[in-house]
Write a structure and sequence with these properties.
Elements: H1 17-31, E1 35-40, H2 46-55, E2 60-63, H3 67-76, E3 93-98, H4 102-111, E4 114-116, E5 128-130, E6 133-134, H5 142-148, E7 153-156, E8 159-162, E9 166-169, H6 177-185, E10 191-193, E11 196-202, E12 207-210, H7 216-236, H8 245-260, H9 270-286
Antiparallel strand pairs: 1-3, 1-11, 2-3, 4-10, 5-9, 6-8, 7-8, 11-12
């Protein structure tokens, strides 16, 4: 008679109620919003994170979630589209839920960044300049530090004055220890920190957008430049609309003035006209 082997079963592990509530809350946010942005919070100080949360109050909800929590929440959603977000779930990210359009929300994230001081080794995204003007620095060892960076100075009323604007770190270069020290002493904050958008999901369109970082100021500058080129082209082909009519009228006036230089209208002087009229009357009277 064969002896039956007893299989030892692992004791059942009940999911804590707290985790269940957490998943349900995320499911509610996913279902109740049209846009989801996954944002990097790597190296983001807690103070700046709290500030971002405050700035978006009433417009979006920001959640830092464990990978297991967001994965369960995505699996629990009925919309198949949101399941695609699982491949983007990584460490050091925050989830932003909102009914704002994805790119509008991304632009707001760019606007709400906080300026911070430079650290040694950071790579400059743009030229870092020191503007001319008075400072609170007093003469001393700092003069040699300023000289190392090529800054021209003068002493006025016992304080150091920067005479000329100077680029101390060029775009793409790393911040040196000397540059970081002087920028800190001058309270120059050339870097900005905040929530960095990685991808955005539009539930209505069921689309995932990558590279959604929007620099609103730069975008508006580029749009202004393109609009100027478009108007110039429209004027060149004499296309009339409310944006070009004033330029076309000005163009017509300048052409009129140019034509006046080439058209010479000979008109007799008033005295000659009167003499000619009298002569004709005399002739007629004699007849």
């Amino acid at each position: 008679m064969e002896k039956k082997t007893k299989v030892k079963r692992e004791p059942r592990k009940d999911v804590p109620e707290k985790k269940i509530k957490g998943v349900k809350e995320i499911v509610r946010l996913i279902n109740g919003n049209n846009s989801i942005i996954i944002s990097s919070i790597k190296s983001l100080p807690s103070r700046q994170f709290q500030l971002a949360t405050k700035n978006f109050r009433g417009k979006a909800e920001i959640k830092v979630l464990k990978k297991s929590t967001i994965t369960r929440a995505l699996d629990a959603c009925k919309e198949a589209g949101v399941h695609k977000l699982k491949e983007y779930v990584k460490e050091d990210v925050a989830f932003i839920f909102s009914n704002l359009e994805v790119f509008e929300l991304s632009a707001m994230l760019s606007e709400k960044k906080s300026p911070v001081k430079a650290k040694t080794g950071q790579v400059a995204e743009e030229d870092i300049e020191i503007e001319p003007g008075p400072t609170e620095l007093v003469p001393g060892p700092v003069i040699s530090e300023l000289g190392t960076l090529g800054l021209k100075i003068q002493i006025e009323d016992g304080k150091i004055n920067i005479r000329e604007k100077k680029v101390v770190v060029k775009k793409g270069e790393k911040v040196t220890e000397a540059a970081a020290s002087i920028l800190s002493k001058l309270d120059v904050k050339p870097f900005y920190v905040g929530l960095e958008p990685l991808i955005g999901y539009d539930k209505k369109e069921d689309k995932i957008y990558e590279n959604i970082k929007v620099d609103k100021a730069k975008t508006l500058e580029e749009l202004g430049m393109l609009a100027g080129k478009a108007i110039a082209f429209a004027v060149s082909i004499s296309y009339a609309c409310k944006d070009t009519i004033k330029y076309l009228l000005g163009k017509g006036l300048s052409h009129e003035k140019a034509l006046e230089k080439f058209i010479k209208t000979e008109q007799p002087a008033p005295a000659a006209v009167e003499q000619q009229a009298n002569t004709q009357l005399n002739v007629q009277g004699g007849q």
